[in-house]
């Protein structure tokens, strides 16, 4: 009861203190005692512990840990608070067992922490543990040599640099990538020594009275979704990710980065830059432009902190976030005033102040752990567990009390987290009841906010004139017709005026990517790539037409209007072609896709937009316009006659979201206890009757599961999503915030990108080539240097896709993609996708299905692979597109007939629409692949005939020449 009162009191008090900016006293940097405690916690188990257990090591692994401390110039001692932290961390992470040795080096096995799938790994019997120990010694000597007696650097290096430094010695010690997965407890090999060390360090820093701090920042979806350009989508996600880092940085500076359990900051670009530039580490590489441009941090974090510091730290976090946000906004404000030649008055300043002050939302909850697990469990069961339901967790604790090591408060980690989540939910439900009036007119990005203006521009006519004459001409990143609020201007301009601006100009001086392709550039990307790839082949006529077209467009237009950032794969093609034909491929690649369509050269629109550029004789503008149109017509005609195709007018927006991620974080999908134990251990345990039933119970949520989820989402965001979308296919990643992905994709690669993103998210892959295996995937993805942890085969994700005309309003397209994602989750039932085809004519049709369907434990049909095969068949003209129309017409009559009758009629219809040039064997093979192993299996799996008709229409559309 006392526990809940404390949480309720904190939640209630937050509503009063949330807006206050007064900071209380508290630690802002780690002191020597804390750093030493954390170093010893990180070293209490040596990295190679799994390899030396049971070996002839004097004093065992504890003496080995002390030897490593001495190698760093420290006193060889493991203090009592570190031992206490180790016991708590072990209780939180492991099944409490006494005995049951595994002889792990002879029977090495790891368990996927999220799916519970077991993986025997190559025998370590041939690895000389003494060589491994020598590698560890060498790395520790390097660290000591690099950082000397600087304790903070030693601590941070042990947290961030030790694993990659050891990994770099993989060829010398024969370990390969096994360093990363060496288990903390060989009997429960579902979490590594690295996770255990970090959790132990976090708890050691928080003793004697640890507490959870759960902090959340908003608004999220509404801030990201408000967009008028593709860059706006990225900018919203990036700003929130940066503010989240600023929040976490307060904790990292005061109590160490390992105090944050979720997300795991190890390897995050913002954190790495902090370690290099502010803390002086130099064994890690500075994040690349690509990495630093990736908004990957979520808007919330969970930390373990001393209870006496937690609430005060939460207020300091709030203060830091608000201060940084104000700094960004008012830096943008000063730049706008300078560039647009604005003399700010009271109205201008008041709008900025009001909107910036009131925009951010912050929520937090603090939960003290307490010192004894029994009173906590009694309280939790009384208030949170339905009395009529059996409580599995109590059975697990009782068994630990009988046969394992004595439980402690760490055993209750899952229930402590559950209660903290409830506290945060209560806080969010507590309204602050602060009303903010936004008078006058609406911002064109955030309709609930007022556009910025001076006092004299209070009627709409004057407001529009102010923006058209003073703001738009002087701020190139703004678009015609826009009137933006302070928040919208910050979102649009912060990348240039704050993140990329030099430190002398009030910015950060970061080298980040801020250019994004327009929707027209997205749609035309496959055509542009074909043209660029053909240029080096020596066709003089193509070269002349591309050259003339590029020159005419650049003569007609300002650079800001003519250019758009090319897709990475188009830029890659241009770079290759540039080696043979300097400059021309790049000039063509950088032109906005708009200018590949005749309607973009509308005379009246250009006269209005280019008034400043063509101030002289109006006939000069008209002459330049006509010449550009002629050059375009020549290029398109040549391309069509030479089988280079025509520009597509359509592109796709996809949004993918992990299913039930809140439940994953709460441990509701954790594997069974028997799945995470080494088989040698379980084979002995199950002989005891009480363990037989316990083995079928779910593993309680543990801190290493939080770290595993964070690692899987981090690597998917930073490494996998961008590689699939941008390096392997024609697409542009807008953001990947863990389980949440948004990307723009060319139609030529759409099904392939969708399929890969979903498969790599959960590791539905097998073999060195990462072949998709929906049924028996490994849960890992192969990389050039080893493997990468994913969410595992028991996790799923859903995706929504909108295929839209390049001129359709971006907001409508985004709303459609999100609606399809919601349909995939709510209507189709998750682990699914849904695609909306929105034609310029106004027709709107959706097809959705599961990613795959299984039968008798085996794969029955891979839906997107089936779509790819039908698309290619239509594209190659193996099948006439008329088949789709005829099938839809016949589907009405076939509805309700047995599967055999539908199959017979489908074969008859397809036979009539196969290309006559095909041999009899070829026709038979196509029918088998497209119908028997494809369309008819979808029908057998529950996809309706009406939906199959939509499926075929989609395949026809994707197979059109301009979309390939």
Topology:
Blueprint: H1 2-17, H2 32-43, H3 49-52, H4 60-71, H5 80-93, E1 109-111, E2 118-120, H6 129-147, H7 151-160, H8 162-167, H9 170-173, H10 193-206, E3 210-218, H11 221-225, H12 230-255, E4 260-262, H13 269-277, H14 289-292, E5 300-306, H15 307-339, H16 346-359, E6 361-368, H17 373-384, H18 392-403, H19 413-429, H20 460-471, H21 486-499, H22 519-523, H23 525-534, H24 540-556, H25 559-562, H26 568-578, H27 584-589, H28 603-609, H29 618-641, E7 650-658, H30 661-665, H31 673-676, H32 679-685, H33 689-694, H34 703-727, E8 731-736, E9 740-745, H35 750-762, E10 765-766, E11 771-772, E12 780-782, E13 787-789, E14 797-805, H36 810-826, E15 832-838, E16 844-850, E17 852-855, E18 858-862, H37 863-875, H38 882-894, H39 899-913, H40 920-940, H41 945-959
Parallel strand pairs: 14-15
Antiparallel strand pairs: 1-2, 3-5, 3-6, 4-5, 7-9, 7-14, 8-9, 10-11, 12-13, 15-16, 17-18
Helix pairs in contact: 1-19, 2-5, 2-7, 2-10, 5-10, 12-15, 12-21, 15-21, 23-26, 24-29, 34-35, 35-37, 37-40, 37-41, 38-39, 38-41, 39-40
């Amino acid at each position: 009861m006392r526990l809940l009162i404390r949480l309720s009191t904190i939640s209630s008090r937050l509503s009063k203190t949330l807006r206050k900016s007064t900071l209380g006293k508290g630690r802002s940097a780690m002191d020597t005692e804390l750093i030493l405690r954390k170093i010893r916690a990180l070293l209490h188990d040596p990295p190679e512990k799994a390899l030396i257990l049971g070996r002839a090591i004097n004093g065992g692994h504890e003496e080995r840990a002390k030897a490593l401390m001495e190698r760093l110039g420290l006193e060889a001692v493991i203090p009592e608070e570190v031992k206490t932290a180790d016991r708590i961390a072990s209780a939180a992470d492991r099944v409490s067992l006494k005995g049951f040795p595994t002889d792990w080096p002879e029977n090495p096995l790891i368990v996927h922490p999220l799916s519970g799938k077991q993986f025997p790994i190559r025998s370590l019997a041939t690895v000389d543990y003494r060589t491994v120990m020598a590698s560890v010694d060498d790395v520790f000597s390097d660290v000591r040599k690099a950082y000397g007696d600087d304790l903070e650097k030693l601590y941070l290096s042990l947290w961030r640099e030790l694993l990659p430094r050891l990994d770099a010695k993989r060829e010398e010690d024969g370990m390969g990538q096994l360093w990363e997965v060496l288990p903390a407890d060989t009997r429960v090999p579902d979490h590594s020594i690295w996770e255990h060390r970090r959790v132990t360090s976090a708890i050691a820093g928080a003793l004697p009275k640890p507490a959870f701090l759960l902090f959340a920042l908003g608004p999220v979806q509404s801030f990201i979704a408000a967009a008028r350009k593709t860059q706006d989508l990225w900018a919203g996600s990036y700003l929130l990710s940066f503010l989240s880092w600023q929040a976490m940085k307060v904790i990292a500076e005061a109590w160490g980065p390992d105090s944050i359990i979720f997300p795991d900051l190890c390897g995050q670009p913002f954190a790495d830059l902090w370690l290099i530039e502010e803390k002086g580490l130099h064994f890690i590489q500075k994040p690349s432009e690509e990495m630093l441009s990736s908004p990957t941090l979520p808007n919330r974090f969970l930390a373990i902190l001393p209870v006496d510091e937690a609430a005060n730290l939460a207020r300091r976090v709030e203060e830091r976030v608000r201060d940084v946000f104000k700094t960004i906004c008012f830096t943008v404000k000063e730049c706008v005033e300078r560039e647009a030649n604005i003399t700010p008055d009271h109205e201008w300043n008041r709008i900025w102040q009001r909107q910036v002050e009131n925009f951010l939302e912050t929520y937090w909850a603090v939960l003290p752990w307490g010192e004894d697990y029994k009173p906590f469990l009694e309280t939790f069961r009384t208030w949170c567990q339905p009395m009529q339901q059996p409580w599995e967790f109590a059975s697990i604790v009782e068994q630990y009390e009988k046969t394992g090591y004595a439980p402690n408060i760490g055993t209750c980690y899952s229930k402590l987290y559950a209660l903290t989540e409830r506290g945060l939910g209560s806080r969010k439900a507590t309204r602050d009841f602060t009303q903010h009036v936004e008078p006058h007119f609406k911002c064109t990005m955030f309709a609930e906010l007022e556009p910025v203006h001076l006092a004299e521009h209070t009627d709409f006519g004057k407001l529009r004139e102010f923006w058209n004459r003073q703001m738009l001409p002087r701020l190139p990143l703004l678009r015609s017709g826009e009137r933006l609020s302070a928040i919208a201007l910050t979102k649009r301009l912060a990348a240039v005026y704050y993140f990329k601006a030099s430190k002398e100009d009030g910015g950060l001086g970061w080298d980040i990517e801020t250019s994004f392709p327009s929707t027209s550039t997205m749609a035309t990307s496959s055509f542009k790539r074909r043209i660029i790839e053909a240029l080096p082949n020596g066709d003089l006529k193509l070269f002349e037409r591309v050259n003339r077209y590029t020159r005419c467009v650049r003569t007609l237009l300002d650079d800001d209007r003519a250019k758009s950032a090319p897709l990475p794969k188009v830029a890659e093609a241009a770079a290759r072609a540039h080696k043979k034909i300097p400059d021309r491929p790049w000039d063509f690649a950088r032109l906005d896709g708009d200018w590949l369509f005749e309607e973009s050269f509308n005379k009246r629109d250009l006269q209005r937009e280019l008034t400043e550029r063509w101030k002289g004789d109006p006939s000069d503008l008209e002459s330049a316009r006509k010449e550009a149109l002629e050059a375009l017509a020549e290029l398109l005609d040549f391309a069509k006659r030479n089988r280079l195709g025509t520009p597509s007018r359509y592109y796709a927006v996809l949004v993918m979201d992990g299913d039930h991620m809140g439940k994953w974080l709460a441990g509701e999908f954790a594997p069974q206890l028997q799945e995470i134990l080494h088989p040698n251990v379980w084979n002995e345990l199950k002989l005891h009757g009480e363990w037989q039933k316990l083995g079928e119970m779910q593993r309680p949520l543990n801190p290493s599961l939080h770290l595993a989820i964070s690692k899987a989402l981090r690597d998917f965001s930073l490494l996998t999503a961008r590689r699939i979308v941008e390096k392997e296919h024609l697409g542009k990643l807008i953001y990947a915030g863990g389980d949440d992905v948004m990307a723009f994709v060319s139609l030529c690669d759409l099904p392939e990108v969708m399929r890969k993103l979903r498969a790599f998210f959960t590791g539905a892959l097998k073999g060195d080539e990462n072949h998709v295996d929906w049924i028996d995937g490994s849960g890992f993805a192969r990389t050039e240097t080893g493997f990468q942890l994913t969410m595992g085969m028991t996790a799923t994700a859903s995706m929504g896709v909108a295929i839209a005309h390049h001129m359709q309003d971006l907001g409508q397209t985004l709303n459609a993609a999100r609606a399809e994602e919601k349909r995939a989750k709510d209507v189709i039932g998750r682990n699914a996708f849904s695609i909306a085809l929105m034609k310029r004519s106004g027709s709107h049709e959706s097809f959705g299905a599961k990613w795959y369907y299984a039968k008798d434990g085996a794969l029955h049909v891979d839906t997107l692979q089936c779509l790819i095969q039908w698309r290619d068949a239509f594209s190659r003209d193996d099948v006439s597109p008329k088949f789709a129309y005829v099938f839809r017409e016949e589907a009405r009559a076939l509805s309700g007939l047995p599967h055999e009758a539908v199959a017979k009629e489908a074969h008859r219809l397809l036979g009539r629409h196969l290309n006559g040039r095909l041999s009899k064997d070829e026709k038979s093979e196509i029918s088998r692949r497209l119908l028997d192993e494809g369309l008819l299996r979808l029908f057998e799996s529950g996809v309706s005939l009406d939906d199959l008709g939509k499926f075929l229409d989609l395949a026809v559309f994707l197979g059109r020449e301009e979309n390939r």
